[in-house]
Amino acid sequence: MNKRLININELSEYIGLSTSTIYSWVSQRRIPFVKCGRLTKFDLERINNWIKESSVQEKKFY
């Protein structure tokens, strides 16, 4: 069974950012997250979409 919701440590490893950066982005609502009671979880589908939407296209030089 694949996990859909991951914790902050797993997300940190997945996207290569520190947990303190992720906590900061959560408090600023800059990254999608899910509250499960007092726990903060991250939906992998929404994270992957967020990464795709935040990506900048490369510029082609001729």
Summarize the structure.
By secondary structure, the chain is of the alpha+beta class.
Explain how this protein is built.
This protein is an alpha+beta fold. The chain is built from three helices and three strands; from the N terminus they run βααββα. β2 and β3 (39-43) form a beta hairpin. The longest helix is centred in the last third of the chain and has 11 residues, at 44-54. The chain starts with a strand and ends in an 8-residue tail after the last helix. The model has no long low-confidence stretch (mean pLDDT 93).
| Low-confidence residue ranges | none
What is the subunit organization of this protein?
single chain
Classify the helix fraction into a percent range. Answer: 40-55%
Gyration radius, to the nearest Å?
Answer: 14 Å
Distance between the termini: 47 Å
Q: Report mean pLDDT, rounded to a whole number.
A: 93
Given helix and strand content, the structural type is: alpha+beta
Number of E strands = 3
Shape: elongated
- Describe the biggest sheet? 3 strands, antiparallel
Q: Give the percentage of residues in beta strands.
A: 15-25%
Spatial ordering of strands, largest sheet: 1-3-2
Order of helices and strands: EHHEEH
Number of discrete helical segments: 3
How many separate structural domains?
1
How do the helices and strands line up, and which of them pair or pack?
Elements (H helix, E strand, L loop, with lengths): L4 E2 L1 H8 L3 H9 L6 E3 L2 E5 H11 L8
Antiparallel strand pairs: 1-3, 2-3
